[in-house]
Amino acid sequence: MGIKYNRVLLKLSGESLMGKQGYGIDTDRLNEYACQIMEIAGMGVQVAIVIGGGNIFRGVAGAAKGFNRVKGDQMGMLATVINSLALSSALEAIGQPVKVFTAINMYPIGNYYSNSVAIEALERGEVAIIAGGTGNPFFTTDTGSALRGIEVEADVMLKGTRVDGVYTADPEKDPTATKFEKITYDEVYNRGLKVMDLTATALCKENSLPIIVFDMDTPGNLLKVIKGESVGTLVY
């Protein structure tokens, strides 16, 4: 079976990097992700990645505790840079070429992001990890992912989460929740489903970037998605 998508934007949540330890970065989980990413890159898939920072710091949660929201979001952006460096290190360790870009100029930690330079890296077979969200406060890494996916002209945005798709309700809380095979952007919005925040969903809709929500914590799932197997939920 061939590959269905040639260029993808993979969104990983910071929380999923915690693995079982409840905070920070679980190296086993990190290495597992790196192997899955290298596997599809080795098949010729061009992979751009955006990682959240929730395992280290969340701006919204910080604001609730009295942090200035702008500074809280800036702390969150730095958390995404830490996660991006960790993933790039794990990829390099297994021989996968990778380049880290940052939304705010942080050279030499990463290259200052520009979509044309990121596309060049992808075309050379490097994994492009794009850190720092959009570089602006009040935007989530979901919005950052949507924006970067559109900018690098990805075929699809793959949202790797702990759950295996989009459900009528939170499956971790409601045992009667049923899973959608596919669902439109409008239906996600009208049902108030927590797939991504509204800004990100609107951006994907306006630019016709489909989203596949799937369980990244099951090894082999990323490859199945790339091959077009029915894993997760398609949002279109």
Low-confidence stretches: none
- Label the overall shape: globular
Can you count the beta strands?
9
Oligomer status = single chain
Percent in helix: 25-40%
Strand content: 15-25%
In terms of structural class, how would the helical and strand content be classed? alpha/beta
How are strands sequenced across the largest beta sheet?
4-3-5-2-1-6-8-9-7
Radius of gyration over C-alpha positions, nearest whole angstrom: 17 Å
SSE run: EHEHHEEHEHEEHHEHE
Whole-number mean pLDDT? 95
Largest sheet: 9 strands, mixed
Task: Please summarize what this structure is.
The chain is of the alpha/beta class. It has helices at residues 27-41, 59-64, 69-93, 115-123, 141-151, 185-191, 198-206, 221-226, and strands spanning 7-12, 46-51, 98-102, 111-112, 127-131, 156-161, 182-183, 211-215, 233-235.
